[in-house]
Amino acid sequence: xxxxxxxxxxxxxxxxxxxxxxxxxxxxxxxxxxxxxxxxxxxxxxxxxxxxxxxxxxxxxxxxxxxxxxxxxxxxxxxxxxxxxxxxxxxxxxxxxxxxxxxxxxxxxxxxxxxxxxxxxxxxxxxxxxxxxxxxxxxxxxxxxxxxxxxxxxxxxxxxxxxxxxxxxxxxxxxxxxxxxxxxxxxxxxxxxxxxxxxxxxxxxxxxxxxxxxxxxxxxxxxxxxxxxxxxxxxxxxxxxxxxxxxxxxxxxxxxxxxxxxxxxxxxxxxxxxxxxxxxxxxxxxxxxxxxxxxxxxxxxxxxxxxxxxxxxxxxxxxxxxxxxxxxxxxxxxxxxxxxxxxxxxxxxxxxxxxxxxxxxxxxxxxxxxxxxxxxxxxxxxxxxxxxxxxxxxxxxxxxxxxxxxxxxxxxxxxxxxxxxxxxxxxxxxxxxxxxxxxxxxxxxxxxxxxxxxxxxxxxxxxxxxxxxxxxxxx
Length: 475
Prior knowledge:
Blueprint: H1 42-61, H2 65-78, H3 83-95, H4 99-112, H5 117-129, H6 133-146, H7 151-163, H8 167-180, H9 187-199, H10 203-216, H11 221-233, H12 237-249, H13 264-269, H14 314-322, H15 329-345, H16 349-362, H17 367-379, H18 383-396, H19 403-415, H20 419-432, H21 437-449, H22 453-474
């Protein structure tokens, strides 16, 4: 149907529009229309081209190639620099098997827009279908250079690297892809592939997949426990604490799943119904199945959490359960301290020390954490570190410390040649227990060795006074 948008009585150069006022001889100037008003401006042509381009995309998605081609041609007539129209035409030609023509059209698109990531990705797919993996690799890499957030190109890169036999590069690209579009896989696929990576010793990559899995399925209890174990192997303690809290918060019940081996292309092939930017090659990548292997014995003492209540004391368990929100400083300190106590109960001293040290970084005035750390150093046979941490704990929280404890610490500090700290502990000892003659004697000797003879003499005199007082009471 042809629709005439012109006025039934169009204005011409000879026609005049007159508005007269019978009370005034003045007349308005005659409007002279110009033919240029009927021609679209350059910006309007670009708008028209975008409309045709949208029509072309719709026809392309409907696989109506003929109408899609017509829409592309209309877009190019309106604006010859519509690069995406050439890209659609190239895609259609490639689908129709006209590869040479498709390449020419893609080249035309790049000449208009040389920084188009999607065109490079399409060229990568073109060569991937030809099994020209090196050419495909080059174009996909160009695509992610121009658009680092093009998840589809990273997925395709992963498959090409796998075809070229470089699984490490493939895995790196695949991790990039799932970070950009985590919804491409299900939680089960994340867990299955993550477990396969873990069995290969790729703990860091496995933790990435497990993290996406538990984000999709926060109730996956056994997988959360495995993720905590991975983070502690990586010594990423803060992440271990975060996910350990999530594990504690879960109700009883495990989510069991059968083991499965799924290489990258198999995973992506199951996600064909999900959005993808770059077209993937049709042939599945041949990949040998990964045989599960036992972890080395050196890892047997790592934390493996199945039921959290079986490993935690009542106090620690209560504290962890109460600290679900990690926003405040106090809760973070409690988390590190409690996790350190858990490792200490398991005699995993290095991990306990790391956790306590993290807690001290956040709360350097917490005497209790210094106490815990001192106990661990005592168990690891490091008396100097133990003594210094006991001293710090007693200094920060002197309330409740007995004079005998100060005296014992003073002797330990003397063994480590920490004279000033030993003197401070002895002074505290005699303040709490003025008749502690042995403390006076040692303190006097230390002061005398420092040249403080008058202070040393006072200590010796106090011993005599204590003896006199003691004898008087006995009489």
